[in-house]
Amino acid sequence: MLLAIDQGNTNSVFAVHDGEQWVAQWRSATAPSRTADEYAAWLSQLMAMHRMDIRLLDACVIASVVPQSIFNLRNLSRRYLGVEPLIVGENTQLGIQVRTLKPAEVGADRLVNALGALAVYPAPLIVVDSGTAIKLDVIGRDGAFEGGAIAPGVHLSMEALHDAAAKLPRVALQRPQRVIGNDTVSALQSGIFWGHVALIEGMIARIKAERNEAMTVVATGGAASLFHDASAAIDHFDPDLTIRGLLEIYRRNTTTGREGTR
């Protein structure tokens, strides 16, 4: 069984694939100081709740944008799974052309998302990943990663506004029924929510205009579920995009993985 780990700046996703389908998936707050033993204890308890044993795991693939966590995640795989993990950006071949000025600087999560999208949707593509940052990435008609745009995410924007403006309260993120708020709280909620919808829609429109072609737009990420039905600019909401990309990387880099796709 494969353990796929997608670690972002805010949250980390641990998912288990049995060779046929995803059988379990868990999300936790990213904690760079968490040790391999702590990961194992946490994971063992969650797997037991699904009547699984951590000893069933015999493969691991990791994508992380938090370099200081990779040491502990690698030790988790080595110590408790007994395998050397595949780590995106270290010991994996992605099989995707990165058509940017500095390919080595492209985040692992962005390339994994590209592979996850290409496995299901027709190119050219725009992948909108809403997390700590909002990333809009472009995959060309030939399947190459061609760059994109990065902006502050919705939760980061809320925290920055609260911290920088003494009289503005911290508010719950929710979809307002009206754009025009009639008090401070509703005005903040409108600005954050509809402002981010406008950002996403505006960037999608500009990308399409710049490329002068029709493109499929796929949204993913922890905050994407808040926006996907608020805009006609998004064609598909796919919460499993990243872990699908990790599965694709595993299959491309292992004999057993390739055999499992036949």
TrEMBL record:
It is an enzyme of class 2 (transferase). The active site is at D109 (proton acceptor). It is found in: Cytoplasm. Keywords: ATP-binding, Coenzyme A biosynthesis, Cytoplasm, Kinase, Metal-binding, Nucleotide-binding, Potassium, Transferase. This is Type III pantothenate kinase. It holds the Pfam family Pan_kinase. Pathway: Cofactor biosynthesis; coenzyme A biosynthesis; CoA from (R)-pantothenate: step 1/5. Substrate binds at G107, A108, D109, R110, T184. The keyword Transmembrane helix does not apply. K(+) binds at D129. Homodimer. The gene is coaX. Belongs to the type III pantothenate kinase family. One of its GO terms (molecular function) is metal ion binding. PANTHER family: TYPE III PANTOTHENATE KINASE (PTHR34265). Its main location: cytoplasm. One of its GO terms (biological process) is coenzyme A biosynthetic process. Its cofactor is NH4(+); K(+).
